[in-house]
Amino acid sequence: METTLTITEARRDLSRLVDRLLCGKESALITRAGEPVARVVPIGPPPVTGAQLADKWDSMAHLTPEDAAEMERDILDMRARLNVPPVSQWD
Fold first, then answer.
1. What confidence tens digit (pLDDT) does each residue in 3-50 have?
2. Rounded to 10 degrees, what is the CA torsion of 39, 42, 43, 45?
3. Strands 27-32 and 2-6
4. How far apart (Å, rounded) are the C-alpha atoms in residues 66 and 89?
5. Which domains does the chain have, with CATH numbers?
6. Which residues is 32 bridged to in the sheet?
7. H or E stretch including 51?
8. pTM of the entire structure?
């Protein structure tokens, strides 16, 4: 959800605007003379680093080879139904 505010409204109610953005996970579009000039969004959680993922890897759930093959079949079936060819970033 996105709220639209003028610069004057945003300046007057900045503290409440930030509270709403953080609680509601919404963004705000700031306008000047009716034209969009900025978007304010919550920053969200920090990204996970590779080192953090490696530390957690052993405790994470892993697919068995059978489950992985079934998941691959399901994905290929869904792509076929949607008539969307597989796309690889390496092609």
1. 899 999 999 989 988 888 888 778 899 999 999 999 998 887 788 898
2. -160
3. parallel
4. 25
5. 2-40 (3.40.1620.10)
6. 35
7. helix 50-56
8. 0.49
Residue 3 to residue 18: CA distance in whole angstroms: 12
> Which residue type does 82 have?
L
In which order are the strands placed within the sheet that holds 2-6? 2-6, 27-32, 35-40
Tokens standing for 12?
A: 């007057």
- Which tens digit of pLDDT belongs to each residue from 66-88? 999 999 999 989 888 888 676 77
Contact 30, 6 (CB under 8 A): yes
**What is the DSSP annotation of 8-71?**
HHHHHTHHHHHHHHHHHT-EEEEEETTEEEEEE----SPPPPHHHHHHHGGGS----HHHHHHH
